[in-house]
Amino acid sequence: xxxxxxxxxxxxxxxxxxxxxxxxxxxxxxxxxxxxxxxxxxxxxxxxxxxxxxxxxxxxxxxxxxxxxxxxxxxxxxxxxxxxxxxxxxxxxxxxxxxxxxxxxxxxxxxxxxxxxxxxxxxxxxxxxxxxxxxxxxxxxxxxxxxxxxxxxxxxxxxxxxxxxxxxxxxxxxxxxxxxxx
Length: 182
Prior knowledge:
The chain is of the alpha/beta class. The protein is 29% helix and 26% strand. The two termini are 21 Å apart. The model has no long low-confidence stretch (mean pLDDT 92).
């Protein structure tokens, strides 16, 4: 998840135009997400992704990144957290609207690799409050927004983290990879 230095994942109106992404970040991100086999989204982020990625590679101006990410998005198992979507007419997609902790723990018990949560601040807040996040993969952008949608809000109890890796990119973004230290 991209985050500002002062802890926001989006501006006050959901703006993300402050996020710095270049080829180096794209390549690193693609390599990293290719290790997972399940992508989790909140409804809003899923609908945004679904409106672009399934056909992104088909556009005449598609970049290498568009082609690679479109192929990944098409094949990855997707889990959408939503109380309003009730149809799973999307390829490789499961919608969870009830018993979220139980359903996520069931998915965690299945064979496979990581479940990667993408964007989705509201879903992230809910999962944090339910102690369902095992780690944080953050891209800290060199910007102070002053206000916006925070990553951490309404935290009920302290969350101890252990830093696993860091990486600095030429564009000024720093990746921090933490696991929850239980």
